[in-house]
Amino acid sequence: MDMYRSTSLFAGLLMAASALPASATAQPREAPRIIGGEAAQAGEYPFMVSIQRLSSGDSDHDRHWCGATLISPSWILTASHCVQGDRPADLAVLGGATTLSGEPSARASNIKAIHMHPAYNSGNSLEHDVALIQLSAPLEGAQPVNLRLQPDASYLKPGRAFTVIGWGDTDGGDGRLYPTQLQTVQVPFVAFNECQQAYGGELSRGKVICAGREGMDSCQGDSGGPLLLRLSEGWTQFGVVSWGEGCALAGYPGVYARIAEKHAADFIESVWQRD
């Protein structure tokens, strides 16, 4: 079954399904998590943040809903399906953490506004699955990621290995193992034609990047996180974790919203108030 790659705990999957429109709940996409990776080092990805669903638990680990990236001190990039139907008061953004604490702690919303791509399609192929979150105040010590909003085709070549990070499920089976420590994995680029064949023609050329192989993928709880390359200017984001068929299954790579695609890049540039 195709599933979204958002949500943190298995109970969160049920909540996410209830928030989706009927067209999506019939065949929900698999919310991604990191499969086949390893624990990230503290401070290795300072731009990575956790979107916390405040009603989902008493600890940061329990409240984790989706991944996201800090693109400037007050602005966060994530997936539209992570925030669909939510008000700012429903969520909070946790930055500066590699480990999500399991200890009970209070957390209040720090979100001013949520902006979903106006052409986001929550149906089977999740087109334009990008969203921006504006924070109520800048995050202290912010170290934003670089965004690749210019043409990116020269980087999308066979043999290219991207990096994916997240706090999502690390098992891939029915057990649902959600780590407290941020996970990282390298996933190989998959050409569009091969990916299109795997998904029965559901994809729109130019709007997504496919990556992953059997045993190495994102999964539930990783949605909204980044698809990265380390370039000379530092970590650079090319995509947003969106969906896939199961997690790390043979022949079914992960699907990532491509942020250099014109409609995605125009949306980000028009809404983002750089600070």
In short:
With 275 residues, this protein is α+β, with helices and mostly antiparallel strands. Helix content is 14%, strand content 30%.
Task: Quickly list its features.
Thrombin, subunit H, 6 helices, 275 residues, 2 domains, globular, six-stranded antiparallel β-sheet
Description:
This protein starts with a strand and ends with a helix. The protein has helices at 10-19, 22-25, 60-63, 80-83, 192-198, 262-271, and strands spanning 2-4, 38-39, 48-53, 64-72, 75-78, 91-94, 111-116, 131-135, 146-147, 161-166, 183-190, 208-211, 226-231, 234-245, 254-258. It has two domains: 2-29 and 46-144 and 264-271, Thrombin, subunit H, CATH 2.40.10; 147-261, Thrombin, subunit H (Beta Barrel), CATH 2.40.10.10. It has 275 residues and is of the alpha+beta class. A six-stranded antiparallel barrel has the order 10-11-12-15-14-13. Strands 6-3-4-5-8-7 form a six-stranded antiparallel sheet. Strand 4 (64-72) and strand 5 (75-78) form a beta hairpin. It contains six helices and 15 strands.
